[in-house]
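2024-03-11 09:14:02 INFO receiving multi-entity request
2024-03-11 09:14:02 INFO entity count = two
2024-03-11 09:14:03 INFO echoing inputs for audit
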Amino acid sequence: MTDRLIISSKAALVPRFALAASGCVLFIVAKSMATGGQANVGQPVYWLIGLLPFAVWGLPVAINWLEKWRSSNHRKLLPSNLQRLVSEIAFRHLVVWVCTLGVFVASHELQLANSIQSPVYEAMGYRNFTATNFILSLMYVGAGYLIWAIFFSLRDVSVMGSRARLVDLLALFVINAGVFFALVYLIPAV
Amino acid sequence: LVIREILFSSVICSLSLPAYAAGANCPVFPVGAEPSDGQLFYRDGRSLAELKLSDQIADRTPNPVQFYYVLREASDEGRAGFVVIKSGRKLGSDETGEALQSKLVHLKRSKKSIANNYPCDVPSAFDETSVAAESYDNYHDYAYDPRNKEEYEGDFHTLSKFHVRRYLGRNKACKNTDSSLWDGLLRLDFRSNRSQFSFDPIVVAFGIHSQAWKAIRQTVGGGSTGLADQRVRMKQYQTDDSKITCIPFTLNVRGRDFFLRINDLESGILRKPEGSWQLTK
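2024-03-11 09:21:47 INFO inference complete, emitting structure
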């Protein structure tokens, strides 16, 4: 899995670009679904918002460029193993993000979303939609993680192994739920 | 004496027999009429007349018009469910319609419930009210939640109260009137209970529009576009031992191009097409 994460690899750019593009399209469709059809692919602002989560890639890339720019006798900003870890976390975060958007879009398009969401609406009394949306965000991100776990991480035992990894996964789950809640539900349609 | 009594009772019986032995809530049907599932009758003055699809209400018919929608079940188990009665007017080319945001759709659900809802739930009470046509279309044409616009949060609450959760359906199955689950994926039947409430005949016939497609190719308007005076009424029913029941309802038929559309949510394992009548020219 880590082979795919080498920042400087040009071959890795194609899947990354595909992931970013599909993530953007899925985000706009998800935003449209969450706002009653008020967002659409013809509005550049949603492409920009859709790209925001992919900015986390910018961090390891920027560090990499900075390392190249600085002379070799300077101390490294980040040890290479830490840099690799940041890159790995960023990649995982984005795969989960795209999986979450995919689950959201698919459940709406297959008309399953109402059956999934109705019990939450009923439990919340069809009021307090901010809290309802946050609960739904947790559910969709949870489903996104499940897809990621099934298709991307079960083959790689090292990802699932240690307690540190579990904390890492929990932290990413909360961050992803927050990002999903903010971008898909909280930001009003323009 | 015995022969005289038999003759007398047979004469009495023949006099008291209605033209057709009707089921619950049904009127006495005209001689020779054998009401079938999905037929619509109305009171034309004092007599009862069948309203065929191509028929229009006679001008002399007083308002409000009394209608009887017939539900007839062939199976021994009978059936229970809900009937959706949609009415309104198509706007003429010389009329300007209200915007979907300000136009209202009137909602009413019959207070009367069937006697035995077991194993499902008794429908909760609902006071008749109205929602914005845009909310109504978003909910039934696209399965969007109207809460997505702050001003429509109340409409979402209203629509969720209007619809019935866990009603008693065919074969004692408990269903939701606003369920958007497809009737049959394998036979490519994308209709659902929710789609039957739409004022767009395409949604009723083929199912809810794609939300993803709307995000890619922006479309405007919904089933309520070009319509006025929209009313939606929902009534629960259960066929009795005679396997027949009627849904009586009244309607003020006023104005040009007045239409009536009726959808039975439990019409069959394969849902029957919408009953649609153009009541005035």
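2024-03-11 09:21:48 INFO post-check: The longest helix of chain A spans residues 80-109.
2024-03-11 09:21:48 INFO post-check: The two ends of chain A are 39 Å apart (CA to CA).
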